[in-house]
Every structure is written in structure tokens, then in C-alpha cells.
């Protein structure tokens, strides 16, 4: 679905320069669960965002920078219940 959206933008000459991940606990919490597991395993949150589905997708598609919105984060490191991260292309 995200790939289809990116392809549609590229098809009309637009490049997607950012992906915003807004992750919450619950039945669709795969990204948040992966983030928390990586942090509990010893990674920093800044590195752990790349271990998520969205982080891996972003990296495969040329996004190399990640910025965490710490003001929106809820829960502690390794136990977040809400988390927001922006993946960007270089210079994006």
C-alpha cells in the first residue's frame, strides 16, 4: 500500500521526501513492538527505529535520516505505548 502510494507520486513526477510513522500499542502495533524489543535488546531508540517494518521500508527506498518526536512519545524506553518518528531522504 505504501509502495503503491510512493509509485503513484513518482508517476506524476513527485518525489516523496519523508515518511511519518505514528505508532501506537494495539492490534496494529508491529512497528512499536519491534522498536520496544530492539531497545530492550540494547539498541538506542535512534538505531531501533530502523529495525521496524517502516524503518526497513524507508531504508530500502532511500531514506537515510530519522528524527524522533520525543515530545509525542509516551511510555519509557523499551516500553513505549506511543511513538512518532520521521524518516527523511538526505537534505529532505
Kindly describe this structure.
The protein is of the alpha+beta class. Helix content is 36%, strand content 20%. It contains four helices and three strands. It has helices spanning 2-11, 30-40, 45-48, 53-60; strands spanning 18-24, 65-68, 82-88. Strands 1-3-2 form a three-stranded antiparallel beta sheet, covered by helices on one side. The longest helix has 11 residues, at 30-40. It is elongated and about 40 Å long. The two termini are 22 Å apart. 24% of the residues are buried.
Secondary structure topology:
Blueprint: H1 2-11, E1 18-24, H2 30-40, H3 45-48, H4 53-60, E2 65-68, E3 82-88
Antiparallel strand pairs: 1-3, 2-3
Q: How many β-strands, per DSSP?
A: 3
Percentage beta strand: 15-25%
Major sheet description: 3 strands, antiparallel
pLDDT < 50 stretches: none
Oligomer: single chain
Question: Mind telling me the C-alpha Rg?
Answer: 13 Å
Task: Give a brief outline of the structure.
By secondary structure, this protein is of the alpha+beta class. The chain contains 4 helices and 3 strands; from the N terminus they run αβαααββ.
Provide keyphrases for this structure.
92 residues, alpha+beta, three-stranded antiparallel sheet, 4 helices, 36% helix
